[in-house]
Structure formats: C-alpha cells, structure tokens
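Run log // design_07
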C-alpha cells in the first residue's frame, strides 16, 4: 500500500523492478537532468495544444483507469484527473526525478499516483487499465514493439491505446531532432507505428495528424528548428496520433 495525499491506495503493481538495461539507464539519467532543469513542467506549453484534441477523442469516463506512459512532470495527469474523477490515473516514467516532480505536482489529487518504470516492463498487473495514453515519449523507447506489447498486456479487453508523437518520418520538419538529442531515437513512419500496433494485437488501428494552431513567433531563436518558417511548417504538418483497441468487451 502507498499513501497518496493522505489516502491509502491499493496498488496492483507487480513486484518487478525496472529492467536495468543500459538504454533505460541512459534514458533515466538524461531525463533526470531534464527534470532537474525544470523542463518537465515546461513541456506542457508545447504539448498541450496537440494533447487536448486527443483527450476529446479518448472519451474518458469518470470511472476509467488510465495509464500515462512516459508521464514526465505530470501535467497531463492533472488534466486526466479532471475527467477521471472516480477511477484511477497512473503516471509511469523511466526517470525517477520526473516521477518525483509528477508526485509533487499532483499531491492533492487522490485518484492520481506516479511510479517509476519502463514501458518495456510496465510494473503493473495485466488487464487493469481501460485506456493508455503516451505523449512525446514513444520514439525514445529502446524497443517500441516491446512497449506496445506491454501496453496491450496491461489493457483490459475493449481498452484503447493512444500514442502521440511529434518526431516521425512523415514530417520532414522534425528530422533534425535526431542529431540534437543525446539519447537514441526511432524515426518511424506512421504506417510503421500502425503495423507495430497490429503486431502487438491491437484492432481498429488508425493514425491521424493533430496540427498545432499556436501562432508562431516572428523570429525563432531556439535550436530545434532552422527558423520561424520551419517551426510553422512543422506545426502545420502536425503531430502523429496512432491508436487502437484491445479486442474484446470491457
Ligand atoms: C519528451 S518527454 C515527455 C514527457 C510528458 N509526456 C510530456 O508530454 O510532458 C519524454 C518522457 O518519456 C520518458 N521515457 C522515455 N523513455 C521511456 C521508457 N522507455 N519508459 C518510460 N518512460 C520513458 C522520459 O523519461 C520523459 O519523461
């Protein structure tokens, strides 16, 4: 049992420590640095405009049990908790420092908890969650196919998975990120992601683009895009959403 904001939650977690692969260790160290620099909270600004349409599509119900895989500092856990008022919202992240931030940022929400763990070995019992969402995390997973198989395992029959990413092959305006990031990434096409969903067992697999209507700056001074025009083109192409359902009745 673990206490979250004074309420004792029964945690159906599996007794499996995070897979201590070198890849996971590198991810943990890199994203711990991001968390310590406050970048976990800062990502909300960039990811909120593409995430809100996904929340609408997910049709969350008050009694849902939702996993956010790669939850970062937990801003999405708070949004999920506004909709999932009677069920359970669980954030999981390979970075224990991100998890600490997420716990702190959600401390007063009794239906929310955050746990350290890697998507290739989700520390949770099978068939628990009704929905799994993941924002801007999947292209970092060392073995995305294994991650999708684990997500399939922890979903109830009839449950659904929603993966949103900004770094994918069909959007040429993000390809430069691979060289700027200090951890390995996967630059896959929408159809390759969809195929991995199907191979993991998902049905009704589809993908969609979520464009970002945020007005761009007149001048871009960051390092991720060549200039303001490329940032605008990137946002117009949109993020990639891939989703599918676990066959069966919930
Ligand atoms: C770009 S951040 C996005 C965080 C959050 N979803 C958001 O939108 O603010 C990527 C997150 O994925 C996490 N992550 C990367 N690989 C992971 C893995 N294999 N298992 C779980 N989390 C992972 C990182 O630690 C990091 O917090």
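design_07 sequence
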């Amino acid at each position: 049992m673990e206490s979250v904001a004074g309420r004792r939650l029964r945690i159906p977690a599996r007794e499996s420590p995070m897979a201590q692969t070198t890849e996971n260790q590198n991810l943990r160290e890199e994203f711990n640095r991001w968390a310590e620099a406050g970048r976990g909270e800062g990502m909300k600004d960039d990811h909120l405009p593409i995430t809100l349409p996904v929340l609408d599509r997910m049709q969350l119900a008050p009694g849902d049990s939702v996993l956010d895989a790669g939850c970062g500092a937990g801003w999405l856990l708070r949004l999920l908790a506004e909709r999932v008022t009677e069920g359970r919202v669980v954030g999981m992240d390979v970075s224990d420092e991100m998890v600490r931030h997420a716990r702190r940022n959600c401390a007063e929400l009794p239906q929310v908890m955050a746990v350290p763990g890697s998507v290739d070995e989700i520390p949770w019992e099978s068939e628990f969650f009704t929905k799994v969402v993941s924002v801007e995390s999947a292209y970092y997973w060392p073995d995305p196919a294994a991650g999708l198989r684990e997500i399939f395992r922890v979903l109830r029959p009839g449950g659904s998975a929603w993966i949103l990413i900004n770094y994918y092959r069909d959007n040429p305006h993000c390809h430069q990120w691979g060289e700027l990031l200090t951890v390995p990434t996967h630059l896959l096409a929408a159809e390759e992601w969809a195929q991995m969903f199907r191979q993991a067992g998902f049905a009704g697999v589809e993908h969609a683009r979520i464009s970002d209507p945020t007005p761009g700056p007149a001048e871009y001074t960051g390092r991720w895009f060549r200039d303001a025009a490329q940032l605008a083109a990137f946002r117009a192409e949109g993020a990639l959403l891939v989703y599918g359902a676990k066959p069966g009745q919930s």
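Residues 27, 31, 43, 47, 69-72, 93-95, 98, 118-119, 135-137, 140-141 surround S-adenosylmethionine (CB under 6 Å).
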